[in-house]
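Schema walkthrough. Field components (list of strings):
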Amino acid sequence: MGKAETRKVGYTMIHTENLSKTYRMGDVEVQALRDVNLEIKDGEFIAIKGPSGSGKSTLLNLIGCLDTPTSGAVFIDGIDTGKLSENGLAEIRREKIGFIFQQFNLVHTLNAIENVALPMFFAGVGREARIKRADELLAKVGLGDRMYHKPSELSGGQQQRVAIARALSNDPEIVIGDEPTGNVDTETGNAIMVLLEGLNREGRTIIVVTHDAEIAAHAGRTKRMRDGRVLD
Amino acid sequence: MRDKFLLAFRSIRERKARSILTVLGIAVGIAAIVSLMSVGYGMEEAITGELTGMADMISVMPGEIRAHSYVEKGSFTDRDVSDLQRIGGIKDISTMTYDAAEVEYRNKRAPIFVIGRDTKELESFYVVPVGLKEGRWLRENDYKACVIGDRVANDFFDEVIHVNDKLVINGDKFIVVGVFEKGDMLYSNDVDPHIFLTLRAAKEVLQTDEIKYIIVRVYEIDEAEGIAEEIEEVINDNHGLDDFAMAMTMGSMIEMMGDIFNIIRGVLVGIAAIALIVASIGIMNTMLMSVMERTHEIGVMKAIGAKSSDVLSLFLLESSMVSLVGGVAGCVVGVIVAKVLSFLGSTASGLEIAAIVKPEVLLAGIAVAVIVGVLSGFYPARKASKMSPVEAVRYG
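Field assembly_structure (string):
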């Protein structure tokens, strides 16, 4: 069903060039990312593994266009994101990328179906179409009977499923997960990974950051990071 | 657009306590403005309304108002009165004399102001608006008869004075033929502490021919100003001074009061403005808090693809909805408060005050509420919309 299926095999969906990110914490400069060159093919399922502080979340935020690099470039589907305006970046985040957070990050004033429909709202999709698709997506992640529940009325695993449904709402080619199983128990974590595998089979490019080898095992390829560098 | 409204409405409803507090803050400021302005207009209308009933009148006094107090320069003569009769357009002239006299009742003495004037004139001037509680009004052929004000009857002596009681004024015995009702705000100073006699009796008992006050009525109200100037000229000529007489039309008295009303209204608006400033700071504070509290939510919205302008417009919509509700609630409360205040004011002063609610005041109130709300929502909303998503998501 993904748009990606029309592309030829081996197409480079994402690549980074000498990507670096330096944070300033008071007087100290922290180099979170050093000259990262990474290539991710269309339809790949890649896990980025590493201890905390290794720069994996920073890399993910840059690939997800949530942050801007200090130097270097991120190309998504051939687009140099460094050349995009703020609105252009918002459009990439909205149309091409679905982001799943460790903390779920649902809007707590909205119920499940409204949360799922929110990215479509920002994309200007009509009300009926939004509700219909949000309904389908929630059914797909197994929450057809929880559509009108507020996040506070859902378990951690259920909230993460809502977040996954939300990530899919504008049918993105890329799904990014920052420790998506970090806040749920092992069983739920495995179920979530199975769900991501399914999304990968639909042709979507999946990038997951984790420090858990078992979780990383679901991915087709694993990259390890340490001290801001990609090791292998 | 409808969806944005729904989203903003949802976020207002989900934060009930804070939204209600914000609405209250705005409503208090607007209610203060609306009620104070409406009562102010009502008071003005009530007083000018009473005065315009006497619009054909010119008061002539031997003196001038200097630094807000009246300075007497002497008294008028019979020649002044006969000269005035030659001025065209005058319907009627009545003269008045007054002075303090020693009054005795059942062996108690008190100094009281005695007023003597044409009885018909006095009747239309005081008896009609104030009314008599007991007895009758003076007749031109009454001689040793008097009508007394409410405080003379009740407060000045140990015992209450009634009709047919006898008073001794400067040594002469007078019979009380009538007692005034208590005067309202406009009349209490003019009627309550005084004793009224016929002009003839007053001249005799006060042992004076001095005329302290002339009241002229004109045929045409439009001509009153011109006639007043002519009166001043004639009398000033008689006394050889530039500024011996002061002739004031009702119109100019109303105008003078208009100035006073502007000052009063200015003060009222000032108080309301302070209330509004306090309310505005409250609104700003609430909006800032609201945005800070929701920084994380804003980050999430941006992370899933909201543009800065989406976030900004959502927050502005929210603050304008809250302030619109606050403005409307403030108007409703303001009108109720104005009615209650004017009712209390009427009871206290005896003057019929009806609060006047002008539509432009209501519209201005709502407009001010929305403008303040949107402006104070703008800064935090802009700040929030400019935040980098990753920074905002990490927050909270």
